[in-house]
Structure formats: structure tokens, C-alpha cells
Amino acid sequence: MKTPRQYKQTAHDQAAQQKDFWLRLMVAFVLIVIFFAVLLGRFIYLQVIKHDEFVAKATSNRISLIPTAPTRGEVVDVNGVVLAHNYPAYSLEIVPSNLEGKIDDTIEALRNYVDITEADLRRFKKFRAEFRSYEKIPLKLKLAPDEAARLASQLYRFRGVEINARTFREYPYGQLTAHFLGYIGRISDRDQKKLDEENLASLYRGSTHIGKSGLESYYERQLHGSPGYQEVEKDAYGNVVRVLKTVPAKTGQTLRLAMDIRLQQEADRLMSGRRGAMVAIDPQTGGILAFVSKPSFDPNLFIDGIDTETWKGLNEDWQRPLINRVTQGLYPPGSTFKPFMGMALLESGKITQSTVIPAPGAWSIPGSRHQFRDSVRSGHGSANLSKAIQVSSDTFFYRLGYELGIDKTAPYLAEFGLGSPTGIDLPNEYRGVLPSKEWKAKRFAKSKNPSAREWQPAEMVSVSIGQGYNTYTPLQMAHATASLANDGVVYRPHMVKELLDHERRQITLIEPKPTRNIPFKYSNFEYVKQGMVKVLRPGGTAWRVGAGLPYNMGGKTGTAQVVQIKQGQSYNAAALAEQHRDHAWFIAFAPVEKPKIAIAVILENGGWGANAAPLARSLSDYYLLKLNAGAAGNSQTATPGALTTDNPLLAGNEPTTKSMPALSAFQAAYDAARQVSPGAADVRQ
């Protein structure tokens, strides 16, 4: 039996336990209230405060924008014959990160349905090193229709393998147009970096290729077009449920060249089996009529990545087919330099048109025993400038060039653009070398011998006949010839005549406007030109080529030394390796009264300049006697539209604007030419 004290203690303990219970209950209640308050607050934050933001995010997860690459613009000749175009085909592609099993096993299994060649495997291996694992890597670029159909029914067995429709670039004339069209290639890390720096990356979303060389590179902005996009709704697995909106891509512009592909074919035929270059310009506009660099290459090999063996073969070929000799081949001009040197002599006042001086078989600098020989051992007696050009007297120019000196000579020669880029609408044009005291000091600045940096008066002797430090491109020589033939009215050489904008249905014309006028006397131009006419007449160095000419033509032969011949020795081509033999040059223009074509031809190691003259004559005959009437009919003024461009060529020539109706004639011809390309079958690769 409990005592009162024990009862009292028990009641106290019960009260304490009850108090502790209620305390715990209150703490639990408070915690529950706080917990629910936090949940409520978070709910309000997410559902009220952040409502708009999360709705947008949810929508973005559900709705995506898929970029669509634009169709690249085409390139056509003056008559609308297609030189570069696009065509659709199916491509077999692999996403390595999505594959099940080894990639080699997958490829081997695919061979049961598709013909996968060793070249395909080499290309795929190269792409794997460049692509990311989650990107689609082409295994076979162009599936045959039966291959695509056969594999499509079995595609469910190959996770990570896709058949995709792609647009491919093609150059139907292959080697014939390679050096001026250039080619496109896959966008590299270097290309992407440049696009990022220029804030152009957004224009290339969905695109895989970019212009790498030639017109494809120079006019990349115009040819590429603008991307479009599809706004699509996706399910939780990322599958497209429906297309909500489509904004079509804008097709790139079409480039229409000044060139008639038939003349290009003729120039290529004439240069067949040779090394060198031939370029023809319209002196009245600066339009390039023919552009041949031999040997050439097939640009189609580069579009989707050239394999290592083929690249090595092209790159190590001693004939250097990848070099664009028209704009990047640097050669001493030989005696084709003499008409321009003659202009310098006349304009400087060193001689007049009636000046006659001795032209012996050899000449020496006063006080020196060294003899500078003429190409004709007996010499030419005495000569004025006209005769010196006709017979190509070296001693005539040796003496007068030495006396005039480099300081007075160089500025006159520079007026013809020698030693400066012509500004043609092609990338990476070389500037050549017009020697001067300043040039030599800079060129040999690192020489420990002070005299090597100083101009020696004797160096002017070889310079005056187009040897020595003189080096120019065939394009520079053709440009200088066109400027001389045009009495000093200078036009910038250009490949592209018009740009056709399909979206705006407008044409932008690169309107030919003189860039400048050479400030020389008209009578001196006419005098030198008549001397060049005599070159193709009896007594001239190319008189056989001039026989039977139905029109007046002016020209100049040139033989450019590759190796120096020692004093007292004679040139013997048979004793020299082919690479050490002289180059053969010829420049020409016709008709003399109003020239329509100016030509420069160089045959590497081709011997005497007269060997190059027949090629220029044949090309001129073909253009003036066979194509000239057609060319005149095709030279109607096109209808340029208001088009913005960053190309300096277009900015310099001030493209003009014309209304839509006149576009239809060319558009119809262009559309018809896309169906049938005249002459294409003759040269397709």
C-alpha cells in the first residue's frame, strides 16, 4: 500500500510526463506547420512567381527548332550552261555513340546490303578523327537506289545507322573549270572559328560545307544563302509529333560568268598535254573569257573529303596540278616585257618615236668587258623602238634600259599593274615582282652583305628585257596587254558578270566601269601597238602565225630563261633537264582597232616564244570568227537588283539596279540551260 508521499510523487511524475508529451506534440505540430509552409511557399514560388518561366521551359522541351540548310547557288557560264550545281542523293551515316556493339562489326553486317569500298572506309576513318561521337558520320556518301531500298527494310536491326537524304555539289566539267571554280568542303574547326569571329555562325546552322577555294570561296556569302527552320513538337522520347511552323531556307544566288564555256573548252584543248597557262580577257569590260591552268585536277574529289592516297598523289606530283598558274604562277616575262618597257622609254622622254640607235649582236656596259648578247648573234644593225619590238632586239633595250635606270623605269611599268594584284574575284592572287631599289632592300634585308641590299646599275640590263628579278603571273601579263590594247583604259579583271537572286528575282550586274586611265600619250599607245602588229608580219618573230589573218592582231613573243647560261656558252635545250628549259610566252590582242580579246599564254619549258604564238592565234580565231556573233547576242544588259555585298569587286564596280521584267529573258534561258547544258557531254569527267 502506497503512502501519501508515494501517491504525491506518482502524481508529480504523471504531470511531468503529460507536460513533456504536450511539449513534444507542440514541437511536432510546429515542425509540421513549418514543413507545410515551406511546401506551400515552394508551390507558390513555382506555380505563381516562376509560372511564366517554367511554362517557357516546358514549351521549349516540347517544341524545338530544327535548322534547315539552304540550297547552295549554282554557277553558270554567260549562256546559262551550268558549271556547278546540286543534286539530291541518299547517304548512309553512322552515329557512333548510338551503336550497339563494335563499329567494325556493324560495318561488316552492313556490307551484306550495301557495297562499301575501301575508299569509303578510308574516308570514314578520316571523318571519325574529325567528327564527334554523337555526330552523324557518312560511311557511304551516295547510295544507289536499290541499295537504299534494300537497306531501308532492314534498318531496324542497326541502331545508330541512318539513311538520310542529302544535297551534293557537283562540278560536271571537272578539270576544265577546277582552277577558277574551286570547290567546297566540310566545315572544319578552323572554318567554324572564323565564322564565330565574324558572327556568321547562325547562318551556317544545319550546313556542313563551305567554299574552300576559287569562286566557291570568294563568293561564299552570295552562294551559301540563308538557313530556314522547322518548329516541331516532340514527345517525351524526343520523337517529332507534328510540325508547327516551317520557315523555308533561302537559296543562294547564282553566279553568271563572263565566260563562254565553249571558248574555255577550246583553250583547254589547245593546252592539252602541256604545262602552263592561258588566259583571255575582254579589254572593253575586264571580263575573263578563258582561264586555263595545266595540269589540272578533279574538284569533285574534295567535296566530301579526299582520301589520303589521292591527296598525296596530287600534292607530290612534280607537275603541281593543284597550283593555279594563272594567278599564282610567277614567271619572268621575257621579251613580252618589251612593249611595256618601250612605253616607259617613250613616256620618260628617253627616246622618241623616231629615235634610231645601234642594235648589234652584243653590248657591254661602258668600262666593262662582260658582253650581254642578243638572241640573234649578228644583231639587227640599227633600230627604232617599233623595229626593236618587231624583231625583239635585246641590245636595243639593254642599252636604253641601263641608261634610264630603275628609278625612272619602275613607276611607268607600275601603271600597267605589273607587280601588283589585279583585283580579280578569286582568292590568293600573287602580286609578282616589279623590281625597285626599295624592293631589293626589303627582299635582302637579312643579308649580311650590304652590297646585296643595294641596287646595282648592271642589274637593270637583264630587267630591261624581262629577265632578272622580274616575275609576273599570266593574269598580270594579260591584264597589262588588255590595258595597252585599250589605250590605257583599265578595267579590273573579273570572272563573274552577274549575280541572280532567286528569292528576290533580281539580277545584280557587275557593271564594267574603268578603274582608272593610264596617263600616257595616245600616240605612244598607238605607236607601240603598231610595233606589236609588225611582230605577226614578215620580219617579225611570229610572222608565220600572222599569215592569213582575216583581222588585225598585235602580239609579242617571249622566251624566258629558267637557268642562266654562262658567258661564252650557247643555249642547248637538249642538254638540259626539261624543268630547266626556257619558258615560251606570247601575248596578243585583236582586233587592233577595237580589241575584243587580249591573251597571255605561257608554256612551261616550252622553248622559243614562237611556240606559244599559234595557241593564241587559234584561240583568237575561235572567239572572233566562231563565237563573236553569239557573244554579241548574249551581251545584253542584265537587270541588276538592289543587292548588298561585301565583295570589293562589286563595291568598286558599283552594281546598278534594274526592274524585274528584263530578268525573264535570262531566267528562261537559264532554266532551259539547266535542263540541257550545250557541249557538256564533250568534257564531262
From TrEMBL:
Gene Ontology molecular function: serine-type D-Ala-D-Ala carboxypeptidase activity
Main location: membrane
Known EC number: 3.4.16.4
Pathway the protein acts in: Cell wall biogenesis; peptidoglycan biosynthesis
Keywords of this entry: Carboxypeptidase, Cell inner membrane, Cell membrane, Cell shape, Cell wall biogenesis/degradation, Hydrolase, Membrane, Peptidoglycan synthesis, Protease, Transmembrane, Transmembrane helix
The keyword Nucleus is assigned to this record: no
Penicillin-binding protein dimerisation domain mapped to chain residues: 68-244
Cell location: Cell inner membrane; Cell membrane; Membrane
One Pfam family it belongs to: PBP_dimer
Domain Penicillin-binding protein transpeptidase: 276-618
Active-site feature positions: 335 (acyl-ester intermediate)
InterPro entries noted in UniProt: Beta-lactam/transpept, Beta-lactam/transpept-like, PBP_dimer, PBP_dimer_sf, PCN-bd_Tpept, Penicillin-binding_protein_2
Membrane topology: Single-pass membrane protein
Top-level taxon: Bacteria
Residues passing through the membrane, by range: 21-45
Protein function: Catalyzes cross-linking of the peptidoglycan cell wall.
Protein's recorded name: Peptidoglycan D,D-transpeptidase MrdA
Species, as recorded: Uruburuella testudinis
Gene: mrdA
